[in-house]
């Protein structure tokens, strides 16, 4: 969850989390300890965000200009452009290696400060830092919002579903853009196989997502556990009898409440 960027926090805290994970895995610092790759300790997107964006090339407005550009691309001019791109990519890779080495050195320095800390203490300290995020305990889903509360166009958001409320986050931001307690939600359900509708008082929010069913099931689970009357959904009649089987929480992008000790070890296929 941390490596995939679903815990919005400072880079300093991310480095501390990486050091605590090393302490939990390897105990005290040693040059002979097995050392995982940086991407198994620290979110790679943070390093990529430090790199300069690729140059923007405005589209040609004139058909003749586009034709000339196409002809030139097949000759010497195209070869020159390819060489420039290769040189730029090489510079970016070098810059990325430098940023990675700098970050790894900072993590190691923090790891050295943890000497004497046992594995349970390292795990507890790790979880204490993660719990500082107000959204801790939520299940996050990547969605595209098509009916924005502020009237903007479609935007990529996190839909966070927790025990007490549904929240909308801008990816990477710790505070929600908006939050709705379950008492404010009048209905919800699938408009189609890839669109989830959430009606909050006098407005409808439409989310494009590949996890429509998971979101609906999770909302039903929290409503049932809170003792709230189940809300009707378009894909089933409102009068459907309630099931007597216990609800099972589906997995979203990340279930923040999952225990640390159940996480796969560094280097596994699920890291």
From TrEMBL:
InterPro entries (UniProt xref): Actin_motor_Myosin, FERM/acyl-CoA-bd_prot_sf, FERM_2, FERM_central, FERM_domain, IRS_PTB, PH-like_dom_sf
Annotated organism of origin: Helopsaltes ochotensis
Disordered: annotated span: 229-271
Pfam family, one: IRS
Descriptive protein name: MYO10 protein
Recorded name of the encoding gene: Myo10_3
Domain FERM: 1-233
PANTHER family per record: AGAP003327-PA, PLECKSTRIN HOMOLOGY DOMAIN-CONTAINING FAMILY H MEMBER 3
Biased composition (Pro residues): 234-244
PROSITE patterns: FERM_3
């Amino acid at each position: 969850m941390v490596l995939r960027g679903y815990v919005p926090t400072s880079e300093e805290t991310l480095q501390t989390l990486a050091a605590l994970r090393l302490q939990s895995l390897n105990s005290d610092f040693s040059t002979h300890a097995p050392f995982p790759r940086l991407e198994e300790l620290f979110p790679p997107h943070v390093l990529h965000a430090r790199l300069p964006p690729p140059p923007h090339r405005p589209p040609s407005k004139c058909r003749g200009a586009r034709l000339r550009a196409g002809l030139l691309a097949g000759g010497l001019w195209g070869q020159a452009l390819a060489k420039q791109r290769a040189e730029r990519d090489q510079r970016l890779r070098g810059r990325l290696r430098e940023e990675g080495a700098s970050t790894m050195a900072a993590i190691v320095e923090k790891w050295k400060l943890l000497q004497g800390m046992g594995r349970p203490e390292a795990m507890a300290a790790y979880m204490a830092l993660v719990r500082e995020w107000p959204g801790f305990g939520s299940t996050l889903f990547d969605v595209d919002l098509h009916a924005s509360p502020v009237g903007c166009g479609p935007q990529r958001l996190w839909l966070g579903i927790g025990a007490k409320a549904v929240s909308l986050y801008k990816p990477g931001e710790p505070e929600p853009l908006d939050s709705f307690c379950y008492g404010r939600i009048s209905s919800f359900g699938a408009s189609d196989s890839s669109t989830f509708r959430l009606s909050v008082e006098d407005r409808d929010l439409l989310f494009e997502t590949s996890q429509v069913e998971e979101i609906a099931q999770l909302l039903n689970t929290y409503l049932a556990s809170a003792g709230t009357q189940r809300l009707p959904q378009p894909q089933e009649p409102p009068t459907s009898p309630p099931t007597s089987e216990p609800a099972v929480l589906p997995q979203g992008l990340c279930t923040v409440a999952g225990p640390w000790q159940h996480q796969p070890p560094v280097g596994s296929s699920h890291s």
